Amino acid sequence: MSCIGKKEHNFSPVNYSLEQWRLKMDEWNEKAFRGNQIYEYLHRSYGLGINEWNRLPKSLRDKLSELDIPKVVIEDKYVSDIDGTIKYLYKLYDDSYIEGVLMKYKYGYTLCVSTQVGCAMGCSFCASTKGGKQRDLEAYEILGQIYSVEIEEDISISHVVLMGMGEPLDNWDHVKRFMEILASKEGKNMSYRNMTVSTCGVVPGIEALAEWGKPVTLAISLHGTNDSERNEIMPINRKYPIDELMKTVDRYTNATGRRVSFEFTVIPGYNDSMESMDRLADLLSKKLCHVNLIPLNPIEEFNKGKQKSISIYKLADYLEKKNIQTSVRRTLGPDIDASCGQLRQRKVKGRN
């Protein structure tokens, strides 16, 4: 059942692991295998209402109908005429909005998902943070973005990147549960290696990710080469300065053996000089890492990046010559505001 319009809710059971559902069945004097069936209905039959879970006895369906299932509804979608990228605007049970982006690659479909409504991190060039953070998403709401798109497009999503609205490591408990359910063989059975967690540099969250020990990919939004650059555009750097962040990255790679991806938005006239590239190369020279250069997708509120930039490919070549493995992110869906937060921002402004 959908709970759109309800303000009071009881969501916690839909975030249960399989083992928790089996224990719940014991508590309800039901056979444990009913927990398996419920788990599969939640994660493999997202489009069905509880009254359609026909493998369950009616008495159990009636008991389950007291739960709220926070379905994620695709309110709107925008298909790029340029490359087929699809941008989704989702509506949640409390009438708030989040976004997602579906990208097609040679290896399959990747969905960029949101982990919060809004964002508290305050990065000055990001539309998601305008208006601040409203709330965290439940694990099942993050999963629902995947399930609703698979139903809408009749596809199977093979990869997920947590690079949508919100800071994933600021919602670690639900993000962790989301990935555990996504990887479970009774759920979607997605490999942890096909999941990417992006952070602006929340040091305790990176340490928690390392302690968790799953082989997900860690992407760090760097965007500056020293404290002066980062402080101005990324407030998180005042709490966790770049030196502390780099030491944490070293501990992470030592603990996991996993390469870290550093995301670096090229802001013309701000961080795109050869001097900045030299500092970036020095910063990362002994790290197990990869640099992903990203063209700036400007928003109204950001007043930097108006100048003509050095070619981003020239910057990539320069870093490669410094022995820093570098790529340039493909610009996807420029005609549909495919960067995170822009569609929601327009929707909220229009509603107000």
Give a brief rundown of this model.
This protein has 352 residues and is of the alpha/beta class. Helices cover 35% and strands 19% of the residues.
Beta-strand portion reads 15-25%
Shape: globular
Our Rg estimate from Cα atoms comes to 21 Å
Q: Please, what is the average pLDDT?
A: 89
How much helix, percentage-wise, in residues? Answer: 25-40%
Query: How many beta-strand elements?
Result: 12
Description of the structure:
There is one protein chain. The chain is an alpha/beta fold. Helix content is 35%, strand content 19%. The protein contains twelve helices and twelve strands. The strands form two sheets. The protein has a ten-stranded mixed β-sheet with strand order 1-2-3-4-7-8-9-10-11-12. Helix 11 (312-321) links the parallel strand 11 and strand 12 (326-328).
Output the keywords:
single chain, 352 residues, alpha/beta, ten-stranded mixed sheet, two-stranded antiparallel sheet, globular
